[in-house]
Design goal:
homodimer; about 325 residues; alpha/beta; six-stranded parallel sheet; six-stranded mixed sheet; about 15% strand; DNA-binding
Chain lengths: ~325, ~325
DNA sequence: TTGTACGCGTTATCAG
DNA sequence: CTGATAACGCGTACAA
C-alpha cells in the first residue's frame, strides 16, 4: 500500500536477481561497481525506498531505542532525550519515547511493550516509587541491553549514568559553609532512589566535615513536588531552632519554598539561603535567582548512548558512570 | 535472538497449526473458545511474545507515529509531545520523536526516514525557515497522513491544529489598550510561518480597531531567539518615538527584552509593558512575572491525535483546527 | 472450526 | 561477481 516499489521491481527491470539488487543497494563490493551504480540509478528513478520493516525483520534488529521517563515535558528529561536523540540519530537509530507518569506499573508495561516491539535497547529513568524490579529480570532474560540514567538503583546490574550527587551535595554545603551558613536543612526525595539517597549522604557527611549544626527536624523526605516545598517552609517558620539555609534536592521544591518564605517576609538569602538541584530554566529567573546544581542533562543523554554502544561492542562489565556536575552560583545564597 | 518463542513453537506443542495459534491469539471467534484459551495459556507458560516486526510487516502498518519538532526540549514542544503520547499510547500507538534543529533540510530527511520506517502518520511542527515543500508532496503521493501543528503553512493541504493566534494577539492588544497603553511595538517571527503571521495580523488590526499609535520601526521580524529580544530592546531605547508596550511573539524574546530594558533602568511595566506568548514555566518567575498567552500545548497534542483518528475513519475534508488560547495575566503590564 | 499454502520485502547462505 | 533459495515470524484467503 504505502511502498509500491520493491527490490524485485528493480531486479525485473534490470534482468538481474533481487539479491544482487539488495547487495548493490547496500553498497557491497561483492557487486560490480557498474552494476551497483546502475541499480542505484534505477532505484532512484523508480522512486524505490527500502522497507525497513522487512529489513529489520530479516536482520532481527529494529534500530530503535526505547526511552522511558517519568514525564516527557520535564525540562531535565526532555533535555536528556534531546541528548540521546542527537547521538542516536547520527548512528541511524530512532527513539521511541514513553512516559510512565512516575508509576511503577506503567514502567513495567512500557518495558514489556518495548520488548515486544523488538527495540535494540531500553534507556530508562525509573518511576520514583519503583520497588518491584521483576520487569527488569524479564528484560535481562531476553538479553536486551538496559541503560539506566538519573533515577537508578544500585542493586540493578545495568550500565548507568548519573550525576555524582554525593559530591555535588557535599560541595554545595561547602559553599554554604564558606559563606558563613552554619545550620543547613535538607529537603530530599525518597531514599530508595539513588540520586536522592546520595544527595542526602553528601549532605550528612558535609555536616560532619564542615562542623555544621545538625537537627533531626531539618530533614524532610518527600516526593519532591511543589507542595512539599511549601510544607517544609511552613514547618521551618515555626521552629525554635531555625536553619539559615536549605539545600533542596530539586529546583521546584526550592522555588516553592522560596516563595512561601518570602510570602511570610522571610528574606532570601538574608534570613535563609536556598540552593536547588537541576538548573531548571526558571531557576535563573526567580528573585533572587536560584543557586543550583547543573545536572548536565544533554551530556547524560549522550553518555547513555555511548554506554549502549560499548555494550554492543563487547558485553563487558557493567559500567556505572558518574558525571561531575557544576554549581551554578547565583544570588540565593 | 531476542525473541525465541514463536507461534510455531506453540503450535507444535499443542499439535495444531500455527495459523490457528495466530487466530487464537488475535481472539478470533473462528477458533473454538476452548482452543483459544488453551493457546493463550500455553503462550503464557512458554513466555511467548508476539514479534511486532513480523506482525507489522504482514499488516503493512507499524502502529507508530512519527513526530518532528524543532527542539525536543523546548517546553511547548515537549508538552505537545506529552499530549500526543497520552492519547496515542491509549490506542496502542508508539511515538518516534525527532528533532529538526529548526533546519529545513533536516525536516525533509526526517520525513523520508519516517516514511521508510512505515510510520502510520507524521505529526510535524515545521522548521522555521522551511520554504521548499517538496518533501510534503512525497508524503502525499505515498498517501501517509500528515498532521501539522503549531508551525503550519496554510498552503499545505493537511489537517492542522494551531492556537488562534490572530485572536490572541488582538485580545492582548485590547488588554493593553484598556490599561492605557497607546503605543505598542511587536517582535514577531518569520512571516512565512503562519503563527507569526497571524500574531502580526492580529496586532495590526488591533492598532486600527483600538485607535493605537503606529510606527514602522516598532515592528521587528526575526528568528525569535534570545538575542533578538536584546537587539530590539536596545533599538527601542534610542528611539525618539518610544513605544510604551511590546507584544512579543514568544516568551523568550519578551524576557530577554525585559532584562535588557531593566539593565538600562527602564522599568517594567511602568515605563514599558511587556506581553509574551507561550506561557513558558519561567515566565511566572521573572520579576515582574510576565503576562503571556497560554498555548494549550497539551490540548494541541491531544487534538492532533484526534485529527489523525478522524482521518483514519474517513478520508474526509482537511480539517484545520484553531484552539482558543487564554491570556495569563501577571504583572508585566 | 481448523489446516494448507502463500505472501509481506529483505537478506544470509550456498552454489556456481 | 551473480543467481537461486530459504528464512525471518506472522496473518489470511481459500479449502476442507
Amino acid at each position: 500500500m504505502i511502498n509500491k516499489i520493491t527490490i524485485h521491481d528493480i531486479a525485473r527491470k534490470l534482468n538481474i536477481d533481487s539479491s544482487t539488487v539488495s547487495r548493490a543497494l547496500a553498497n557491497s563490493d561483492r557487486v560490480k561497481l557498474k552494476t551497483r551504480e546502475l541499480v542505484k540509478k534505477t532505484a532512484d528513478e523508480l522512486g524505490y525506498r527500502r522497507n525497513h520493516l522487512a529489513s529489520n525483520l530479516r536482520k532481527q534488529r529494529s534500530y530503535t531505542i526505547g526511552v522511558i521517563v517519568p514525564y516527557i515535558n520535564r525540562h531535565f528529561f526532555s533535555t536528556v532525550i534531546s541528548g540521546i536523540e542527537e547521538s542516536a540519530s547520527k548512528q541511524g537509530y530512532k527513539l521511541i519515547i514513553c512516559q510512565s507518569g512516575d508509576q511503577e506499573q506503567k514502567d513495567a508495561e512500557l518495558m514489556e511493550m518495548l520488548i515486544n516491539n523488538q527495540v535494540d535497547a531500553i534507556f530508562i529513568s525509573m518511576a520514583m516509587t519503583t520497588t518491584n524490579t521483576e520487569h527488569f529480570k524479564l528484560a535481562q532474560k531476553i538479553d536486551i541491553p538496559i541503560i539506566l540514567f538519573d533515577r537508578i538503583r544500585d542493586d540493578l546490574p545495568f550500565p548507568s549514568v548519573v550525576i555524582d550527587d554525593y559530591q555535588a551535595a557535599l560541595e554545595t554545603c561547602e559553599l554554604l559553609a564558606k559563606k558563613g551558613y552554619q545550620s543547613i536543612a535538607h529537603i530530599g526525595g525518597r531514599q530508595n532512589v539513588s540520586i536522592y539517597k546520595n544527595r542526602y549522604l553528601g549532605y550528612l557527611d558535609a555536616i560532619e566535615k564542615f562542623n555544621l549544626n545538625f537537627c533531626d527536624d531539618w530533614h524532610m523526605e518527600c516526593n519532591m513536588e511543589s507542595k512539599d516545598g511549601v510544607e517544609f517552609a511552613n514547618k521551618i517558620m515555626h521552629m525554635k531552632k531555625r536553619p539559615d539555609a536549605i539545600l533542596c534536592a530539586n529546583d521546584i521544591v526550592a522555588i516553592s519554598a522560596m516563595r512561601t518564605l518570602q510570602a511570610h517576609s522571610i528574606e532570601v538569602p538574608k534570613d535563609i539561603a536556598l540552593i536547588g538541584f537541576s538548573n531548571e530554566p526558571l531557576s535563573a529567573y526567580t528573585s533572587p535567582p536560584l543557586t543550583t546544581v547543573d545536572q548536565k542533562a544533554l551530556e547524560i543523554g549522550q553518555l547513555a548512548f555511548n554506554l549502549f554502544q560499548k555494550h554492543q561492542d563487547k558485553v563487558g562489565q557493567v559500567e556505572r558512570m558518574k558525571v561531575k556536575s557544576s554549581i551554578i552560583q547565583r544570588s540565593s545564597c
